[in-house]
């Protein structure tokens, strides 16, 4: 007789895999009628649970995983500090994985979690991620997942972010108010929700101030400092901006370097503002104006919500967005 798995049960019952899984676990958020249907068919077909999948449900490792795209960015350093603060208070261990902006690495790391070694996952996806099947499979197996910073908007779970659109609007408006007529945007990957929101904020600020949009001043940067430096240098040669809004701190640092090579002075020749949690931003020459995110609080909130779910048996994560406000800190790099 052909073996029956949870996917087959779901197909026969015209239910989602997650619903069947919860019904078999007697989860409180599944109706009695649905549970009875699932259990009856499982008995009829002699369904035997997959031991690897069931380990995710039954085994409590008191460990959570955190998957991030990079560690050099100070945002993620602070977010991890917030996560670990909560985890230590609750008696959980934290395993940290870095994808280095590599989608296949992210998929491989997700597969490593199929064996039930962790109770939950906090993730900020790579800039190359467009397919979330690997994460949906984990969720269907019963692993709670919370997104932070870089999220999948269509994924049915909790997401903790900052006000990317509003902050980008304010950053661009700040450059305009400081006298900039040609504002460039050094953008992060368009695959990412934060990349799209930050670009939209930039474009809306230009529109609201009746400033034209120049495609040559919008540069989608990479994860390679040498390539980014060349892209920024080419932008200055094509159409010299007098203001730069960088989506992440790495691009601001590249801008400083390029300006030095081209003998351009900041802020006299070009003004620069960036999303950044750099502690040394105030001590750069010139000091860097920043959109500073509450990264520690974001990490802490994401971890708190995940651990609260783990400690309340079968309590689902709500499909909601928790948004923290960022702060615009004006320094010398945007001075008149």
From TrEMBL:
The lineage of its organism: Bacteria, Pseudomonadati, Bacteroidota, Chitinophagia, Chitinophagales. It comes from the Bacteria. GO terms for molecular function: DNA-binding transcription factor activity; transcription cis-regulatory region binding. This is LacI family transcriptional regulator. The keyword DNA-binding applies. It comes from Paraflavitalea soli. Keywords: DNA-binding, Transcription, Transcription regulation. Signal peptide: none annotated. Pfam families: LacI (PF00356), Peripla_BP_1 (PF00532). Coiled coil: none annotated. InterPro entries: HTH_LacI, Lambda_DNA-bd_dom_sf, Peripla_BP/Lac1_sug-bd_dom, Peripla_BP_I. Residues 4-58 form the HTH lacI-type domain. Gene3D superfamilies: 3.40.50.2300, lambda repressor-like DNA-binding domains.
